[in-house]
Amino acid sequence: MTRRNEKPEIVRKLVIFSDICSSTALVEDLKATDNLSNWLNLLIRLKQDLISEGKNIGIDMYKFVGDGWILLAPYDIDRNTLFEFLYDFFCCFEIGLDGENINELLSRRPKPMGLTFGSDSGDLIKLEMNEQVEYVGRPLNVAARLQGAAKQFCEPYGAVALLSKSALAQMRENPPGEDMRGILKQVTVPLKHVSGGQEIDCWRWEWA
């Protein structure tokens, strides 16, 4: 455990919050037919994919938060590297739905059904609590709020992310001649409990 008066360790990271849309409806539907094990198998599949794909590009799994994960990436990660990672995660989700027979087991397909992401970058305080590494800092709060705000842009099925302007600015540009993976659009969204609840400009990414 971090000791009193110990100098805190500051790390600069890109924070990514992920969420499975309509997860509560999905879980309740599968629970009603005694098929929750299929949902757990999907989560395990997604976790394994996040670990294996993230390992090669410096993206670490920080924490599972019930229906998604908090991921930490290099703050200056290449834009396309990040967007390809998010899209690959979405593809794994699609494959997992079929692989675990979830689409067939659902009595009704909820809408929206897909993935949302929120991302911000900046300094985090790294500490140890109960033999676990923990992080605190504004980027975690902003990324969580952006992920929540991303739901308003959800299509019936797909993947969408909101990135803060500072997060995108610190990421490396794509190599010359390399096409952008997906579409970026500037949008304005309100963030509760951040910046006094005022609207902020950010970037919306979605796969084209």
C-alpha-based Rg, rounded:
18 Å
Structural class: alpha+beta
- Name of the CATH superfamily: Nucleotide cyclase, GGDEF domain
Q: What percent strand? A: 25-35%
Q: In terms of per-residue confidence, which ranges show pLDDT below 50 for 5 or more consecutive residues?
A: none
Q: Any guess at the CATH architecture?
A: 2-Layer Sandwich
Order of helices and strands: EHHEEHHEEHEHEE
Shape descriptor reads: globular
Seen as an oligomer or otherwise, the chain set is single chain
- Portion in helices: 25-40%
| CATH fold label | Alpha-Beta Plaits
* Integer average pLDDT: 90
- Number of spatially distinct domains: 1
Structural description of this entry:
The chain is an alpha+beta fold and 208 residues long. The chain has one domain (9-206): Alpha-Beta Plaits (2-Layer Sandwich). 36% of the residues lie in helices and 33% in strands. The chain contains 6 helices and 8 strands, in the order βααββααββαβαββ. The protein has helices spanning 23-32, 36-55, 79-99, 102-105, 138-150, 165-170; strands at residues 9-20, 60-64, 69-74, 113-129, 132-136, 157-164, 183-190, 199-206. Strands 1, 2, 3, 4, 5, 6, 7 and 8 form an 8-stranded mixed β-sheet that branches. Helix 2 packs antiparallel against helix 3. The longest helix is centred in the middle third of the chain and has 21 residues, at 79-99. The protein is globular and about 50 Å long. The protein starts with 8 loop residues before the first strand and ends with a strand. The mean pLDDT is 90.
